[in-house]
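(Deposited chain)
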Amino acid sequence: MIALSVTIALSGSVMGSAYAMQDIVIENSPRSSYVPVSDAQASSDSMPDNPNAILPGTMSRNISDTSTMVSEKLVVTPEGDVQDIETGKSVTDSQLVGTQYRQPDPLTKTNGESFIPVSVSDVKSAVEQSSLENAATVRLAKFDSNEYGAHWGTYNGTKAFFDYKNNLFAQQARGVIDVSEWQHDIDWARAKADGVEGAIIRLGYGWGNNADAKAQRNINECKRLGIPFGIYWYSYAYDANCARSEGGDVVAKLRQMGVSPNDLKYPVYYDLEQWTWLGHATPTNPTVYSDIANAWYSALQSGGYKNLGVYSYTSYLQGPLNNANIYAKTRWVAQYGARMGFTAFGTNDRGWQYTSSGQINGISGSVDMNAFGSKMVNLEVKGEIEKEWRSTGAEKGALGYPVEAETSFPDGWKSQRFQNGDIWARGSDRSFVIKRSLRDSWDSHGGFSRLGAPVANEEDMGNGYWRQRCENGDVWTRSGAWSKYAVVRSLRDSFNKNGGYHALGGPVADEEDMGNGYWRQRCENGYIRVHI
């Protein structure tokens, strides 16, 4: 391996804090008076993306950075093995990992709590940061704001849900919970009186398994009380044949429970997540997932159920599910943050699962809370941004419809967010586009405040790598892989001076603080290092 070392003196830091937490009290306020808060407003003891999951006190050295945390205590390796976070030992309990021929209940790993999978490397960074921070976790009551400032309000005289910067997610919105047997016997009358306006009920998971133990009761109660409901089904499919089997199970169980298509006010959702199952591996190719989704849809449609959707979480949609066909089907997304990072929604019938820590009368313990509604709002596209948008084909082109109003930034920059990318413009001679994965990489690495505006359009670097140059650094992604990196400031200078992509290949990690003023960035064929 080539090791390159370059010393460069800087007046500023190479990177900002990965988790700049702060202590804050959340209030449910109307849009006109809501005060925006930080994107990373959670307890310093919280797991990234999971504000009510606690960071591990200890972590075995046998746990690889490439593994993924799937609960507060368990990780899964890229090979699909489940390990205990503290001991590093493999987990063999069939209730957690299943058997060769039977899938486990996915909620067993978390005792019924929802958990968004997160990379071990991000967790390690948060553990390091937590020693510098100390704040209290905010608990929710009823349909209030989430821990990061996403909140309820009104828009055009209707109930609405907004992100922390008051960007509209949905108007004509309803507070909806999603439930399973892990919520036990729900007192649905009390829940309805406490503000529940809809429910998404787990029907089951995988294929060849029993239905969720409380599905029939939950369906009957929602029918009796007039609570609008939909269904979700957790997938263990690794190919299209498995998906057809899952779809057949869904149809059979819906009919068995007396659920006709007309009973469903919300869709039947196909829950696509990174799963763990002994002896089997989660798909990683978006094309495979597209075939899986099509096969499941076909089985449901053949059974007469046409109101369908895909559910997942933002990081998985930006990785293994990064496929136009799946994006077109996605109607419900989990993200426990300040804003909804997935922007390829249609304008109608969209759902944001914004927290897993809701407290509702009639339900023991926590429950997931969601905002469901439409985003029928007219957004003007004008000036140089409009010219660039129309040059890409406008709403029928690669960028799709606008999803946010134009925003002004320092140094004369203006930007507008569209379904599949952002357009940036300064004056009449500079306009650039950041599309999908590169935009996600830009967002996740500090956005304008850290990287500045783009100074070129995306570049195909070869071997699946794509790069977008910005004022203060470059963002990278790799097609077909769940990888997003930034090479910033002096590290970018070193990368370019020492052969760039031709000599070093693409980045394979974000920058690392090596101590004593040294920073390192690992690449395919070597690494770059600077001292500040």
In short: Residues 1-42, 131-139 have pLDDT under 50 and may be disordered. The first helix runs from residue 94 to 97. The radius of gyration is 23 Å.
